[in-house]
Amino acid sequence: MGGGKKKEVKKETGLGLSFKKDANFGEWYSEVVVRGEMIEYYDISGCYILRPWSMGIWEVMQVFFDAEIKKMKIKNCYFPLFVSSSVLEKEKDHIEGFAPEVAWVTKSGKSDLEIPIAIRPTSETVMYPYFSKWIRGHRDLPLKLNQWCNVVRWEFSNPTPFIRSREFLWQEGHTAFATKEEADEEVLQVLELYRRIYEEFLAIPVIKGKKSEMEKFAGGLYTTSVEAFIPNTGRGVQGATSHCLGQNFAKMFEINFENEKGEKGMVWQNSWAYSTRTIGVMVMVHGDDKGLVLPPKVASVQVVVVPVPFKTADTQGILDACAATVETLLEAGVHAEGDLRDNYSPGWKYSHWEMKGVPLRIEIGPKDLEKNQVRCVRRDNGSKQDITRDNLVEQVKVLLDNIQQSLFDAAKVKRDASVQVVKTWDEFKDALAQKKMILAPWCDEEEVEKDVKERTRGEMGAAKSLCSPLEQPELPEGTKCFASGKPAKKWTYWGRSY
Ligand code: 87F
């Protein structure tokens, strides 16, 4: 403080989290999303406010994904939030198991609606009557639509911000093709985009795979997904899904077309989605005891610049250097922000921005000013490095790239260490008790999966199949199923899951 009247400066760094990630994971998570200013709790259970800090991450992923699907000639649209009961319940298989989660509007003001109206839990039934109307001939195909929207699923199991909330944001893609081959190809193209969101943006390793008959979307033909893993809880988490719906919905909604030869055919359809759950997985994987840890590619603030004035030193010079540093970085496309507030101490600011997970902190003090340098401190590993202001931009960019890569590498090392290959039921039970993600040879029979669920039931929740990886390791002739002893057909990941 440059002499004169003393201002009240907040110094206390008693800002840390009260829970440790390894000791109390659930409490740590709830605390970190709030203290990191991503989430505010709301007075309706299972609903959360997404503050700018998390919305900014969602927007970065939106920009990427939206541009990629536009390259695939998929067009954005918007369908209504409300569904009539007759339409919603048209596809019986589809809605069967989900019915308890559908929320209904029954009143306007004080009077009852004549017919209750549902709020979309997903939009198959909202959109497909119009697919039927818009598709007549082969020239109307493919029809490729996407919408960015909210959906509501009135879940009863314990709500968790981002991971399981009653309202969430997502994109849902719905496409229709003349042939199964085209549909099959798109399923995998979209799955690859989901892999890139996780691995290139959120720095989280995922496994691309196919769901079992039990775990697939019941209304569809087959389901693919990207699966992530949370080592702390030993739970798998479905990161995003890309379904081939086959012709089930086409049959139900009469989505027919006439081909070149004048023959009638039914369309082949896909649907695919990723949601704000992505953000929760990111917090769980990278966060630490100091708070959030954001990968640079999704952080709204990549670099925070903090002045470190000292009693006798040239405070104005330091503030000017900070402002200039921010300006230089912004001009170079680096998301930088200066924290020049004079009512907080540098130490307070350090913990504040660490809590929010900003990837890189730049400190400028009297010594730095003298030497025309800045001090860089990495959020991911705490390492410090002085860099000259002459090639600030270049070096900051290198640092941010390194942080992005290190986060992915560290997460992959942890994930890989959590994977256990097993051959027998005993090995499976042991691995499950050790919170592993289990890769096991399986006979691919539904009865056997039911049996696995039954035999692993307990307060932690039953184990289920997560996916059969698209990239299958070699399965030697004569390999037995870990659970039934019958001949194994494929390698499948198993575990508890969110
Ligand atoms: C909850 C209530 C009613 C999931 C539900 O995955 C219906 C449903 O259909 C429901 N929860 N689902 C499955 C959603 C399938 C599919 N929809 C389009 C996707 C991707 C996007």
UniProtKB/TrEMBL annotation:
<dbReference type="InterPro" id="IPR004499">
    <property type="entry name" value="Pro-tRNA-ligase_IIa_arc-type"/>
</dbReference>
<dbReference type="GO" id="GO:0017101">
    <property type="term" value="C:aminoacyl-tRNA synthetase multienzyme complex"/>
</dbReference>
<keyword id="KW-0436">Ligase</keyword>
<dbReference type="Pfam" id="PF09180">
    <property type="entry name" value="ProRS-C_1"/>
</dbReference>
<dbReference type="GO" id="GO:0006433">
    <property type="term" value="P:prolyl-tRNA aminoacylation"/>
</dbReference>
<keyword id="KW-0648">Protein biosynthesis</keyword>
<keyword id="KW-0030">Aminoacyl-tRNA synthetase</keyword>
<dbReference type="Pfam" id="PF03129">
    <property type="entry name" value="HGTP_anticodon"/>
</dbReference>
<dbReference type="GO" id="GO:0005737">
    <property type="term" value="C:cytoplasm"/>
</dbReference>
<dbReference type="InterPro" id="IPR017449">
    <property type="entry name" value="Pro-tRNA_synth_II"/>
</dbReference>
<dbReference type="Pfam" id="PF00587">
    <property type="entry name" value="tRNA-synt_2b"/>
</dbReference>
<dbReference type="InterPro" id="IPR006195">
    <property type="entry name" value="aa-tRNA-synth_II"/>
</dbReference>
<protein>
    <recommendedName>
        <fullName>proline--tRNA ligase</fullName>
        <ecNumber>6.1.1.15</ecNumber>
    </recommendedName>
</protein>
<dbReference type="InterPro" id="IPR002316">
    <property type="entry name" value="Pro-tRNA-ligase_IIa"/>
</dbReference>
<dbReference type="InterPro" id="IPR045864">
    <property type="entry name" value="aa-tRNA-synth_II/BPL/LPL"/>
</dbReference>
<dbReference type="InterPro" id="IPR004154">
    <property type="entry name" value="Anticodon-bd"/>
</dbReference>
<dbReference type="InterPro" id="IPR016061">
    <property type="entry name" value="Pro-tRNA_ligase_II_C"/>
</dbReference>
<dbReference type="InterPro" id="IPR002314">
    <property type="entry name" value="aa-tRNA-synt_IIb"/>
</dbReference>
<dbReference type="GO" id="GO:0005524">
    <property type="term" value="F:ATP binding"/>
</dbReference>
<keyword id="KW-0547">Nucleotide-binding</keyword>
<dbReference type="GO" id="GO:0004827">
    <property type="term" value="F:proline-tRNA ligase activity"/>
</dbReference>
<feature type="domain" description="Aminoacyl-transfer RNA synthetases class-II family profile">
    <location>
        <begin position="80"/>
        <end position="295"/>
    </location>
</feature>
<keyword id="KW-0067">ATP-binding</keyword>
<dbReference type="InterPro" id="IPR033721">
    <property type="entry name" value="ProRS_core_arch_euk"/>
</dbReference>
<dbReference type="InterPro" id="IPR036621">
    <property type="entry name" value="Anticodon-bd_dom_sf"/>
</dbReference>
